[in-house]
Amino acid sequence: MITLEPLRPDHAEALLAFERANRAYFARSIPDRGDAYFTGFADRHAALLAEQAEGTCRFHVVLDAAGGLVGRVNLVDLADGSAELGYRIAESAAGRGVAKAAVAEVCRLAATDYGLTALTAVTTVDNPASQAVLTRNGFVLGHGFLLADRPALAYRRSLAGLG
């Protein structure tokens, strides 16, 4: 159904198109990236690749069966066996199990390929779909907080048994 690929330089054009096409959709449930993200995309993409090369982050694109970019799923701030999970799935792919499958796959990669033992994730309170994706993938609700002045929830998942 989907495949995850590590972020590469040649993903830049498709990734920018994905972010532009879904900007308004994403802004309904997560803080907007702002105009500077789009105008400086080439530099931002290069910076992400550098972080990935250093091993502090693991960025992935989500491809559908036809090879189209329908999402991204990332592990950031890898340290002490843990990382923070973040993901975005295109509006056109929403409700079809893409997010659930992508998160499941990155959890597996985190344990088997990246040697991580736990993941954290956050979502806004008004994003029940993301909350469902996390709980269906074994994340446990931790606490509430404010994310860019929006009520949010923190989750955690142990990766024990996946490695």
Describe this structure in words.
By secondary structure, this protein is an alpha+beta fold. It is built from 5 helices and 7 strands; from the N terminus they run βαααβββαβαββ. It has helices at residues 12-27, 35-39, 41-54, 98-112, 128-136, and strands at 3-6, 58-63, 69-79, 82-89, 118-124, 140-147, 150-158. Strands 1-2-3-4-5-7-6 form a 7-stranded mixed β-sheet, sandwiched between helices. A hairpin with a 2-residue loop joins strand 3 and strand 4. The mean pLDDT is 95.
Keywords:
single chain, alpha+beta, 36% helix, globular
Shape: globular
Number of helices: 5
In round numbers, the mean pLDDT is 95
Strand content: 25-35%
Alpha-carbon Rg, integer? 15 Å
Low-confidence stretches: none
Report, as a whole number of angstroms, the end-to-end distance: 23 Å
Largest beta-sheet details: 7 strands, mixed
* Total strands: 7
Order of helices and strands: EHHHEEEHEHEE
Helix/strand class: alpha+beta
Helix proportion range: 25-40%
Strand order of the largest sheet: 1-2-3-4-5-7-6
